[in-house]
């Protein structure tokens, strides 16, 4: 399940809903990861642009990897502005076995950081500033990889 929100994520509500949805499906492990925007380098927060067609394709490929291991992935991400000390990203893996879920959540989050089509901006003095030094080029992105 992939959810996109136009605001900072309501972590407690999302995790509670996911847990309620998954708890009776006979999975033995529910491993969440919550990303929190840090107050560093004078930023007020982060802002995100998402290219949904590629994100949906990327997430579907991961869901197939999970299914092959009898696991299931959940992900939520914010669009737009997310102030410091709030969340822009939540991911979770449910699996019958904890070792599968623990490995998969690590691999999924690392691949997300490297390959998900989400562009990050710093919020400085109320303006979006492209976070080029913390961004990665996407393989095969063509014009999307042009210098900003």
Helix content: 25-40%
The first-level CATH class is given as Alpha Beta
- Number of domain units: 1
Strand arrangement, largest sheet?
A: 1-4-6-2
Major sheet attributes: 4 strands, mixed
What's the end-to-end separation, in Å?
Answer: 31 Å
Low-pLDDT stretches: 142-148
Structural category: alpha+beta
CATH homologous superfamily assignment? Molybdopterin biosynthesis MoaE subunit
Number of beta strands: 8
What value does the Rg take, in angstroms?
A: 16 Å
Rounded average pLDDT = 90
Looking at this protein, list some descriptive labels:
148 residues, globular, single chain, Aldehyde Oxidoreductase, domain 3, four-stranded mixed beta sheet, four-stranded antiparallel beta sheet
How is the topology of this model organized?
Elements lengths: L1 E4 L5 H12 L6 E8 L8 E6 L1 H17 L3 E7 L1 E4 L3 E9 L2 H18 L2 E7 L2 E4 L18
Parallel strand pairs: 1-4
Antiparallel strand pairs: 2-6, 3-5, 3-7, 4-6, 7-8
Q: Can you describe this structure?
A:
- A 4-stranded mixed sheet has the order 1-4-6-2, with helices on both faces. A 4-stranded antiparallel sheet has the order 5-3-7-8, with no helix packed on it.
- By secondary structure, the protein is of the alpha+beta class.
- It has a single domain, classed as Molybdopterin biosynthesis MoaE subunit (Aldehyde Oxidoreductase, domain 3), CATH 3.90.1170.40.
- It has 3 helices and 8 strands, in the order E-H-E-E-H-E-E-E-H-E-E.
- A hairpin with a 2-residue loop joins strand 7 and strand 8.
- It starts with a strand and ends in an 18-residue tail after the last strand.
């Amino acid at each position: 399940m992939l959810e996109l929100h136009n605001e900072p994520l309501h972590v407690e509500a999302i995790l509670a809903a996911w847990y309620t949805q998954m708890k009776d499906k006979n999975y033995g492990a529910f491993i969440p990861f919550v990303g929190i925007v840090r107050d560093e380098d004078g930023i007020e927060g982060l802002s995100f642009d998402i290219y949904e067609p590629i994100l949906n394709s990327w997430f579907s490929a991961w869901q197939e990897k999970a299914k092959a291991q009898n696991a299931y992935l959940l992900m939520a991400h914010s669009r737009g502005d997310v102030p410091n000390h709030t969340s822009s990203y939540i991911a979770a893996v449910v699996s019958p076995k904890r070792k599968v879920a623990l490995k998969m959540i690590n691999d999924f989050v690392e691949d997300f950081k490297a390959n998900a089509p989400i562009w990050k901006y710093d919020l400085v003095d109320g303006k979006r500033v492209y976070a080029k030094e913390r961004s990665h080029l996407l393989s095969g992105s063509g014009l999307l990889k042009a210098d900003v």
